[in-house]
Amino acid sequence: MWLSSFDPRAPTRSAHVRKISRTAVLGAFGIDNPALYEDAPNLEVRVSFDKAARTLTIADNGIGLSKQEAIDNLGTIAKSGTKDFMSKLSGDQKADAQLIGQFGVGFYSGFIVADRITVESRRAGAAADQGVRWASGGAGDFEVDDIERTQRGTTVTLHLRDDAEEYLNAWKLKQVIGKYSDHISLPILMEKEEWKEGENDQPGDMVKTGEWEPVNKASALWTRAKKDITSEQYAEFYKTISHDYADPLAWSHNRVEGSTEYTQLLYIPAKAPMDLFNREKSAGVKLYVKRVFIMDDAEALMPSYLRFVKGVIDSADLPLNVSRELLQESRDVKAIREGSTKRVLSMLEDLAKKQKAAVDNAAGKIDVGSGESVPAPEPTAPVGDVTDVVDKKAVPAAEAAAEFASDPDAGKYAAFYAEFGAVLKEGLGEDFGNRERIAKLLRFASTASDTVSVGFADYKARMKEGQEAIYYITADSLAAAKNSPQLELFKKKGIEVLLMTDRVDEWALNYLEEFDSTPLQSVAKGAVDLGTLQDEAEKKAAEEAAETFKPVLERLKEALKDKAEDVRVTTRLVDSPACLVVKDGGMSTQLARMLKQAGQAAPELKPVLEVNAEHPLVKKLEGSAHFEDLANILFDQALLAEGGLPEDPAAYVRRVNALLV
Asked: For 412-444, how does the pLDDT look when each residue is reduced to its tens digit (9 = 90+)?
C-alpha cells in the first residue's frame, strides 16, 4: 500500500515518545472481558535501547493489533485506531477509557529519528500464531508478515539514524519520558543501570542489571478529587511544575464539564519572576491532553496580563497532535481560555474580599481604652491595611493588629498586588470582557494613604457630596506624586486623589474612562473644575485675577512660545507659582518621557503652563528687568516639580545663578 502524503519532518524529534502506547485501551475492553488480560493483569510500557544494534524499543502489553488493524492503522497516515475504537464506546465506558495513543501522525514522527520502524503485535485474545510484523523505511511502502508471538500487546522498534545517538542514552530517555508522559496512568519501565569500573585501564560504563524500574510517576495530581489532596501536596506539585522554592499564594483546582471538558489546576505564585515584564516570555500554564504533555508555553490558554499564573490544563477534547495554529483557532481552546481567565480573576477577588474582611474585623475590635470593643468606624482611611485604621486611633491597638497579622488571609492580596499589580493593569487594555472585574481588583496609594491599598470602590465610598469624578495623578514616583503642585487645591478642599506611579498606569487608564458610572479625571489634564466643591467667590476672584494679569500672560506666551502651548491663570495652585498640565485627552508629560526613555516614538509635546497669579514670584514678573529669564525659570521649575528635566539644564543653572547674584 502506498503512503502518499506525510511529512516526517514536521513533528519534533521527541514527539515519537509521546505516542508510546495504546495500552489503556485494554482497560476499556477488560471491564467486560477479564479473559483479555490473559496471564498479565498489570498493564505497563517498557522502554529499552541497544547501543550495538542502534535500536530503541517501546513495548506494551496492551490490546495489541491484528494483521488487518496493522494494515489499516499503520498503513494509512493519520488514521487513528483509537478514534475508531472510541466511536464504538458509549456511556461510562467512553468516559473511563483513557485513550492516550493515536497511531497516525504521531507514529510517523518516529521517522525523524529512525530510518526504519518495525512493529510486532498480537491482539489480546488471539492465538499466539496470529501475531503480525509490520515494517517500513518511511519511503511510502511497508511490509506485513505473520509471526508467532506469545505475549499480547505491541512492540515498536526504531532503527535509529546516525544523528539520533542521544536516544541511546538512559538519561535522555528518562528526561523525555518525564517531560511528556510522567502523568499518564500507566507505569513506564526501563532497565536499571549501575556503574561498572573498567578493567585493564579501560574506562568504566553504565551496565544494565536486568531489573526493571518505573521511570514515570504514573499519576496526575489534578485528576484526583480535591478532598483527597492535602495543602502540602498542592504546594509540592506547584514547586515541581514551576521550579519555585516558595509555596504558592493561592490555587484553584476544578473540573469543568459541558460542551468543552477540561481540568484546571492553577496557581498564583508568591513572588514575581525576574522576567515578569517580558511579554514575549513563555506562559506558565502547561497543556496536557488526556494526561499527555503537549506544550509548556500555551499562551493561547491564558491572556498575557495573567502570564504570572502557573499550573496545568488537561483537556479531553483536543487532539494529541494539537498545534499552535489549532490552539489559536479552536473553539474548545477559546472556551478553555475564557473559563481559566474567569477562574483566576475569581481567585483574586476571593483574596481581596478576605483581606477586606480581616481589616474590617481588626478595625472593629480596636480597644479605645474602655475595655470594650467598638464597631468599625466609617472608613476615613482606605481599607486594605490595618495600620491605616490603627493610626487613626488615639490609643494602642496592639491586640487588634496582632490578630490581623495572625490571620493567614489578611495580607495575601496585598502581597499579590505588590508583586503582580502592574501586570494585572495591562488587562484593562487587553480584556474588554473582564475590564470591570479587573478595575475592581486594582489598588493605588492616595493622598489619604501612602499604602497601595485604595480601590476605586473604596475611593468612591469616601467621595465628598457634590464630587463628580474620581481624581488621580500619574507620576514617576510616590514622592513626586504626593508633592505635585497639581494637588494643592485638592488638598486644601480635602478631596482625595489617587496616586499612580506604575509605568503602565496612564496607558491602562486610557481604556477605563469611568468606574461604576463615575468618570475618572486626571488632575494634570485640562482645566480644573470642582463644580459645587469650589466657592463662587473663589471662581470670581480667579476670573478677576486672570483679567488683571492678562498683559503679563501675553508676554509669558511670547517668551515661552517654543516650550508652552498656552499660558493661563489657574485656581488649582495654592503654594506653588506654576505647574504644567496637558489638554484633556492628551498624553501626559510623564508618559512622553517614558516612551522616549524606552526608545519609542513619542509626539512632540507642548504642555500648558498654569500660573498662580497670587504667588509673589509671579507678581514679580510684571516689573522685572529679567522677565524672559524669570519666565523660563518658572517653566523649568514646573517641569522639575513633576519629575522632568529642563531641555537645557546648563541654561537653567545660568539663569538661576544670574538672579542669585
From this structure: 999 999 999 999 999 999 999 999 999 999 999
**Residue 82: C-alpha distances to residues 21, 433, 568, 646 (Å):** 11, 38, 77, 71
Q: Domain check: are 183 and 242 in the same one?
A: no
| Same domain flag for 252 and 338 | yes
Q: What backbone torsions phi and psi does residue 531 show, to the nearest 5 degrees?
A: 60, -130
Residue 550 lies in a domain: yes
Scanning 425-455, the segments in alpha helix (DSSP H) are: 427-430, 435-441
- 185 in any annotated domain: yes
Q: Which residues contact 100 (CB under 8 A, 6 or more apart)?
A: 21, 22, 24, 184, 290, 291, 292, 320
Question: Which range of residues forms the domain containing residue 283?
Answer: 220-424
Helical H segments across 465-535, by residue range: 478-482, 488-493, 505-509
* Residues 265 and 315 grouped into a single domain: yes
pLDDT confidence bin for 348, thresholds 50/70/90: very high
**DSSP per residue over 284-302, as a string?**
SEEEEETTEEEES--GGGS
124 in the same domain as 250:
no
Cα–Cα distance for residue pair 29/44, rounded to 1 Å: 16
Q: Is residue 457 within 8 Å of 571, Cβ to Cβ? A: no
The enclosing H or E element of 418 equals helix 412-424
Q: pLDDT, tens digit, for every residue of 563-585?
A: 899 999 888 888 999 999 988 77
Q: Which three cell numbers stand for residue 296?
A: 509548556
pLDDT digits (tens, 9 = 90+) for 451-500: 888 999 999 999 998 899 999 999 888 998 999 999 999 999 999 999 99
The predicted model gives 92-106 an average pLDDT of: 49
Q: Determine the residue type at 319.
A: P
User: Radius of gyration of the chain from Cα atoms?
Assistant: 35
Q: Residues 51, 116: one domain? A: yes
The b/e string for 338-372 (b: 16+ C-beta within 10 A; e otherwise) is ebbbebbbebbeebbebbbebbbbbbebbbeeeee
Amino acid identity of residue 242, one-letter, is: S
Single out the residue of 330, 618, 322, 591 nearest to residue 476, CA to CA.
591
Same domain for 377 and 266: yes
Residue 91 banded pLDDT, cuts 50, 70, 90: low
Residues 6+ apart with CB under 8 A from 90: none
